[in-house]
Write a structure and sequence with these properties.
CATH architecture of the largest domain in chain B: 3-Layer(aba) Sandwich
Number of helices of chain A: 11
Number of strands of chain A: 0
Radius of gyration of chain A: 19 Å
CATH superfamily of the largest domain in chain B: P-loop containing nucleotide triphosphate hydrolases
Largest interface: A-B, 25 and 33 residues
Largest sheet of chain B: 6 strands, mixed
Strand content of chain B: 25-35%
Oligomer: heterodimer
Number of domains of chain A: 1
Helix content of chain B: 25-40%
Largest sheet of chain A: none
Shape of chain B: globular
Order of helices and strands of chain B: EEEHEHEHHHEHEHEEHEEEHEH
Strand order of the largest sheet of chain B: 5-6-7-3-8-9
Structural class of chain B: alpha/beta
Distance between the termini of chain A: 35 Å
Chain lengths: 264, 310
């Protein structure tokens, strides 16, 4: 556990060395926040009523929590593990008395931490300052929201970890990564809230892990999901976190058996 | 109990057999040089010893453990440096890498700090502790890699090409450190290298691998003896002297300046420098002497030639 915590801290410090990148990310997130808020408010105005449980303040909350979590949750994926498999550096990970999946998860939690603090929260505060935004309606929503963010980070990491591990079998996984990004970007509820989807698409989304990466924490924090529904939103996330971590373990083991470290 | 033990170890890649029925063992405290051409099977063997690569067949034990099934336990007891890969955290100050590795090896903070301080002092890395790893020079990084591999005081240190790309001075410092470390800790050392200086300074036993097969297992002197390479004693004498044909165990190679300088070759297994020198100096006044060692690369080439490889 202490090892895990130290690896989390290392991830935090690693990513905090790139301050300019954080600032740039924050700026981008804010600009896109304005654009998205304007578009969704216009859609809401033309409908003349709340859509899918979203009125104006919850829609604003949806937009800005989304922007805040965009850098925190690794929606677009990462290439580190894939690159290490390709170059053979993954061998070094197997020389350590820790499980590589757990070590990378710890590092990613650290990365998520610095991105939430250094990039997400400032963007959120800026949005809250300029728009009329709904805050979590109760202490329960705040706490559950925090847990839900943590789970979202874990789910996104675990899914991407599995994708990265495909490099054991495929020389180039760029196509798969791209497919994951496009599908995930849509189904996680980044562009539009999942409840706004047509029925068929909402069904697909709800059977996928993607809403667990963004829509669920946002719903809790925007106050659209309250009471007993909070437990089921978090429960679904727990299910996906456990399932994808388990899948990662299976794939990691298969990959290790297959490992033919290239070069030298 | 042997610290490394392999029996009929085989690893096949798609079409080639990288390691072919390899059988050898290494006892605790030994320093073993593992040499051979590129692609001879050195790194593949090391990867099987450390549980990175699954053997196709055969038996392998490291510290008495099955590396494939007990990878984590093996990792706790072995330190490994791959000269071309890094185990340090690129973006962080060097100090942080040691702290993280200490935690990974479940050392408490005081123990990690004490061990780090010691290694840093011996490797003269103090000024670099606050530097991000990506900004270290190659020589500095290699010393840091070795410190990282030794942090948890492993019983066995495996170095794969540790001096590759280093300048003469950096190599020298690294070797001196390793000699001292082994003297103090009794760490077992397995070393692959293309640099024969590494073998001569650090190893008391040599394994030569060729086409995945063990071509030689013995001392460096024995290796030279196997292929008939002999040491040469160059003797400078005070007076012009007739050719020294009658020295037991030695053969005259040539004689210069009316016999002022004479070169005698001798088989290191059959006699010693001291015996040859004693015989000569009992009859003539010796002013100076030097010993020419056989060129090890040449020796390895000859072993390959003997086993039918060009």
């Amino acid at each position: 556990m202490k090892t895990f915590w130290l690896l989390v801290r290392a991830g935090f410090r690693r990513h905090s060395t790139y301050r300019l990148a954080l600032l740039a990310g924050m700026t981008t997130n804010s600009v896109f926040g304005f654009i998205r808020a304007s578009i969704l408010l216009a859609a809401l105005a033309s409908a003349g009523t709340a859509i899918g449980g979203y009125d104006a303040p919850t829609t604003i909350a949806f937009v800005w929590w989304g922007q805040a979590l965009l850098g925190t949750v690794n929606l677009w994926g990462f290439a580190e593990v894939k690159d290490r498999v390709r170059t053979g550096d993954i061998a070094v990970d197997f020389l350590r008395p820790v499980d590589p999946q757990i070590a990378y998860l710890a590092g990613d939690l650290g990365r998520a931490g610095i991105n939430l603090v250094g990039r997400g929260v400032p963007a959120l505060l800026l949005g809250a300052l300029l728009f009329d935004m709904a805050w979590p309606p109760s202490a329960v929503s705040w706490v559950a929201g925090a847990v839900s963010i943590l789970l979202a980070v874990v789910v996104a990491f675990s899914g991407n970890f599995v994708i990265n591990l495909l490099a054991f079998w495929l020389v180039e996984i760029r196509g798969i990564t791209l497919l994951w990004m496009i599908t995930g970007g849509l189904l996680c509820g980044l562009y539009l809230p999942v409840p706004w989807f047509p029925d068929w698409l909402r069904t697909i989304a709800n059977w996928s892990p993607f809403p667990s990466m963004l829509q669920n924490p946002i719903d809790i924090l925007a106050g659209r999901v309250v009471g007993d529904d909070i437990a089921s939103a978090v429960g679904v996330q727990v299910f996906w976190a456990v399932a994808l971590l388990a899948l990662g373990q299976v794939v990691l083991r298969a990959g290790r058996r297959r490992l033919e470290v290239q070069g030298g | 109990m042997s610290i490394i033990e392999t029996r009929d170890l085989v690893r096949d890649f798609k079409k080639t057999r990288a390691v072919d029925r390899m059988t050898f063992s290494v006892e605790p405290g030994e320093a073993v040089g593992y040499i051979g051409a590129n692609g001879a099977g050195k790194s593949t063997t090391i990867k099987m010893l450390t549980g990175i690569l699954k053997p196709t067949s055969g038996h392998v034990r490291t510290c008495g453990l099955d590396p494939m099934r007990q990878r984590v336990e093996v990792a706790r007891r072995v330190g490994v440096v791959f000269g071309q890969r890094s185990q340090l955290w690129w973006d962080l100050p060097l100090r942080d890498s040691f702290a993280i590795l200490g935690a990974i090896h479940r050392m408490d903070e005081a123990a990690t700090r004490a061990r780090t301080d010691l290694l840093v002092e011996q490797l003269e890395m103090g000024p670099q502790l606050g530097t991000a790893v990506r900004s270290l020079s190659l020589g500095q990084r290699m010393r840091a890699e070795i410190a990282a591999a030794l942090l948890h005081s492993p019983e066995l240190l495996i170095l794969d090409e540790p001096t590759i790309g280093l300048d003469v001075l950096s190599k020298q410092r690294l070797r001196e450190f390793l000699v001292a470390e082994r003297r103090e800790q009794g760490t077992t050392l397995l070393l692959t290298t293309h640099d024969m200086g590494d073998i001569e300074r650090l190893c008391d036993r040599v394994l030569v691998v060729d086409h995945g097969r063990l071509a030689f297992d013995g001392t460096l002197t024995g290796l030279a003896g196997t292929v008939g390479a002999q040491r040469i004693l160059v003797i400078d004498l005070a007076q012009p002297t007739p050719d020294l044909h009658d020295v037991p165990g030695a053969t005259l190679v040539d004689s210069e300046s009316d016999g002022l300088r004479q070169r005698l070759s001798f088989d290191a297994e059959a006699t010693t420098v001291a015996a040859v020198l004693a015989h000569v100096s009992s009859r003539h006044e010796v002013r100076d002497l030097t010993i020419e060692e056989p060129d090890i690369e040449d020796v390895v080439r000859r072993i390959y030639a003997a086993s039918g490889r060009t």
